[in-house]
Model the fold of this input.
Amino acid sequence: MQTYLASNKRTSDLTDDDLVQQAQIGDPGAFEILFERYSTLLFPLISRIVRDEHLAHDVLQHVFLQLYR
Done:
């Protein structure tokens, strides 16, 4: 099984759909790219909602854990 990370495609060229499909077949690197793309967007939002930095990290981790499962 060849993963996207082992191919010649650059990370920025991969669509979210491509990455989700790769993650679903077991490519941990694809999930890591999705995490990197979206955690920086989600963390400030979660922080504003929960108003606690440590809790925001926990919530973000929980969100991605649920997505991974």
In short: Residues 14 and 46 are 26 Å apart (CA to CA). The mean pLDDT is 89. The helical segments are 16-24, 28-50, 53-68.
